Structure formats: C-alpha cells, structure tokens
Amino acid sequence: VVVDKGAHRHFMSKEIAEQPEVVGHTLVRFIDMTSGRVRLPAGGDFDFSGLDRLAISACGTAYYAGLVARYWFEKFARLPVDIDIASEFRYREPPLTPGGLALMISQSGETADTLATLRHCRAQGMKIGAVVNVPTSTIAREADVVFPTVAGVEVGVASTKAFTCQLAVLAALAIKAGRDRKVLSEEDEAKLVASLIELPRLMAETLRLEPQIEKLAQTFSKALDVLYLGRGTSYPIALEGALKLKEISYIHAEGYAAGELKHGPIALVDENVPVVVLAPYDALFEKTASNMQEVAARGGRIVLITDREGAGHAGDTLATIVVPDSYAFVSPLIYAIPVQLLAYHTAVFMGTDVDQPRNLAKSVTVE
Ligand code: G6P
C-alpha cells in the first residue's frame, strides 16, 4: 500500500484528521447497525462470561488505551482488570489462571515486549486476545482471537489514529463483556452503542477546534515543563497528552491523576508551567475544578479542555477549549483529539521532525 500525506504537511496531521473516518470503519466491524448491538467480527468471537479477571498488557500509547479500558471493563462488565506495561508484566510474576484471557494491545503487532508477554501468557495456559492494527503481524498471528482496529497504515511515529481505534474496539468489547456477564440490560447496551455510533460525528466536530489550539503553540513552545491532569478515564488521556507532547516537541511533560496534584507536582507550578486540565462536566468535574483553583492560586496558567457546561463553571484560564457534549463513556475518544493537536502544533512551531522524532522508533522490536 502506498500512503501519502495528501494535502497535509505531515503524516501525523493527516492521521489526526482521519480519526472520525477510521474510528467509524473500526466500529462497523464491531456493531450491528440494524440491531444496535455489539457483534464481534467473524473469527473474533469471544464469550467473557466465565472469566474471573482480564489481564491487559501493552506499551506506550497502546498501554494508555488499556488503562482507559480498565475503567470500562470494571464498570460495565464488573470484570476485574489487571493492566501492565508489557516490559514489566513478567517481572511481577503474577499468578495466572489457565483458561483466563490475556489481552495484548498493539498497533504494529511487532513490539518485542508485548510479544514476549503474549508468549509468556500462552505458556501459562492462558487464552490470548489481541487488539491489533496490522493483521499480518506476529502478534495477530499468534493470538487466539484477534480484535482488529481498522486505522489503516499509521506512519507518524507518535501514534494517534491507532489509539482512538484501539479505544473504539475496547469500548465495544467492554459492552460485549457487560452483556455476556449479565451486567448490562439490552437497554443499557443500546444506549452505550448509540453513543459509539455518534462518535465519528463528534470527533469531526472536535477537529474544528484546530485553529484555536494552534494559537496555543507559541506559549507551549516556550515552556520547559507542562503538566496534564485528569480524573477517571480522563486520567489516561492526560498521560497520553503528556506522552504526545514529549515525543514530538521534546518538552518535558507529565500526566497526573488530578487528585495527585497536591502530592507532588504542585511544587512545580508557577507562571512558567502550563497546566492542561481535561475535565468533562461529569460526576468528577467539581473535584477537578478545585484542583484547578489550587493551580490558579499559585499563578499557574491553565488550559482547560471541557464541554459547554464545564466551560460555564471554569474559573480563570489561559484558554478554555470547548469540545462537543458527549456521554461520559465516549469522552476519552473526544478528549484525545485536542491533546494530539496541541502536541502537533507545538512541535510544528518549534520545527522538530514531527513524523520521525529523534531517538524514537515506530515499532520497538528489541526488549
Ligand atoms: C513505540 C511507538 C509508540 C507506540 C509504542 C507501542 O514506542 O513510538 O507510538 O505506542 O511503540 O507500539 P505498538 O505497535 O505495540 O502499539
């Protein structure tokens, strides 16, 4: 397959823009549009009802997709999830149940640590599921069940569209698990699926915030450190936002659970450290808002990413980026976009090699 940048300056920009489309392509593989129910693709059927636990392993951005999925599997399917960075999984020597499910998440399907974890779990008698973008990859071939992402070829070293497609697949799997385990009623399932079907449109709307986000690039390019804060499923998106920024702009960035702010990172806050706060107006908003006040009281400059209701409750910010309203369930796929765009435009402003950042590889095939 030949891929080009089309009208875009970088592959990363093209891949960010493609997300509504490829998330849509991915979702149709997992949703029966006529019944509005989750239907796993042929060859990828799996029944979650008999599981005691689910063990997820991945690296980098794929690991953050797994962190989001833990909230979903535990909430909607009451399925306890263990999640590890693949390179650490074996050293923890976790007790594994033969017949249990180990789920690997990987764009390339070739990451050495993830593959080593897969083989370790297989040797312990576990069943292997894989959320994988490259269908011919080693991880896809060695897994028992493949849950494909349909992101298409991803060229930019910093993963973007593969990430949101991984989230789409994991969201569908969590719903399926909730149904299999009789936690979700047919009605609950219909509501959750409806919010997934709406996603491509909401993601397209979110992309229209690009000019506003681009204006922040100059301020961010001068920062030496940036903090990203979030609660609940926004916490892994904060981690992902920080990873994106450091990967391509080389600015030091850290993602933190908003509640951890007072246990350390607040010591860094002054007028030179931008703080990106991801806070949809959900049950957790008020708590995150109080963390924001702690930042503001120390002269910190806040970039708040929120929805319409949240914007109405924002205090003093450097900028408030208002994304479309959505169900809390799907917010990670929406909030991922502004943090990708912020990293991208900061890097472009600084003139770094966005698609091939120094020292990084698209696929890391050594342990
Ligand atoms: C590298 C890439 C990241 C990616 C990670 C995991 O570090 O630069 O963008 O998230 O590997 O790759 P995988 O192919 O397993 O998803």
Secondary structure elements and pairings:
Elements (H helix, E strand, L loop, with lengths): L10 H7 L1 H12 E2 L4 E2 L15 E5 L1 H18 L3 E5 H4 L11 E6 L5 H12 L3 E6 L5 H5 L2 E4 L12 H20 L5 H12 L1 H9 L2 H5 L2 H5 L3 E6 L3 H16 L2 E6 L16 E5 L6 H13 L3 E6 L1 H5 L6 E4 L8 H20 L17
The protein binds 6-O-phosphono-alpha-D-glucopyranose.
6-O-phosphono-alpha-D-glucopyranose binds next to helix 3.
Provide structural commentary.
It catalyses: D-fructose 6-phosphate + L-glutamine = D-glucosamine 6-phosphate + L-glutamate. Keywords: Aminotransferase, Cytoplasm, Glutamine amidotransferase, Repeat, Transferase. Catalyzes the first step in hexosamine metabolism, converting fructose-6P into glucosamine-6P using glutamine as a nitrogen source. The chain has helices spanning 11-17, 19-30, 60-77, 86-89, 112-123, 138-142, 161-180, 186-197, 199-207, 210-214, 217-221, 234-249, 285-297, 308-312, 331-350, and strands spanning 31-32, 37-38, 54-58, 81-85, 101-106, 127-132, 145-148, 225-230, 252-257, 274-278, 301-306, 319-322. The longest helix is centred in the middle third of the chain and has 20 residues, at 161-180. The model has no long low-confidence stretch (mean pLDDT 95). Helices cover 44% and strands 16% of the residues. Helix 2 runs parallel beside helix 7 (161-180), helix 3 runs parallel beside helix 7 and helix 12 (234-249) packs parallel to helix 15 (331-350). It has 15 helices and 12 strands. A 5-stranded parallel sheet has the order 4-3-5-6-7, sandwiched between helices. Strands 9-8-10-11-12 form a 5-stranded parallel sheet, sandwiched between helices. By secondary structure, it is α/β, with parallel strands linked by helices.
